[in-house]
Amino acid sequence: MIPFRNIAVFFHVARIQSVTGAAEHLNITSSAVSQQLRSLEEHLGTTLVVKSGRALRLTEAGEHYFDLISEDIEHIIKVTDQIKGTKTLTRINIRATPTIATKWLLPRLSEFLSFHPDLEVRLDGSNEPTDFSRERVDIEIRHGTGRWPGLYVQPLITEHFLPVCSPTLALPNSLSPNDFKDYRLIHSVKAQVQWRHWFASIGSKRDVFSGGLYFDRSHMSVDAAALGLGIALESNLMMESELTTGQLIIPSTVTPKMPVCTQWIVCPNQSLRLPHVRRFVEWIQDKASQWSDQNDAQLFS
Question: Among 112, 231, 120, which residue's Cα sits nearest to residue 171?
């Protein structure tokens, strides 16, 4: 007899990557989940999951088995709900930094929802990196350097860091780098490109001017610049709307190319086997490619 119940339990454990999380989802105890996992492993004659420190990891056999059954089980869940007369909604849990979520992702999210009405999206705005073994997050847009071993990691977009300010403060292309000493500089303290990097890129040996405003969130720096509080150095990814509407302009007579990626698509490798995760990854990569082509042409044409 095929142990369908045990297979379903394994599917949820592999998808959530947590015995506790699967137990909560299935409304059973963690010990019951562990027992059914062991029963399935005995039935198959192989180990499917192992503990790696405090985390749970699929074995090679477990990854292969999950790959073979995941689409069929999701289809069975959907068809079962349809027979019951309920509308199936698969939830995708996305985590992103508050700035990228607000400034770039939200304006595009309606398109994804219209393309995929069967998906329910939960967007969690946080700067804290996800512990995928303990948190129910399918995919994360993570700020950093891209070095996170053991996970699927792909760059989202190549950005350019530019000096910007309100048009009430200065005119476009009107200030030499030396003129910046007469203006308040706005700093994003967690940004990977700082004012000292920008001055170095244009060959200036001048120290970054003292004083100014310091923020630990990029969206606050962007908003402060739009309010006329000074000149900010920010990613064009984070201030797309403000540049497009003219709330921000580039006052500098020089705009050196400073390509860098600070936002990355991150998730466990096995999550890419889930259709709804693959759909989101493919969609956001397409949006990012379109954005890059359009913005590079506008900035450096």
Answer: 231
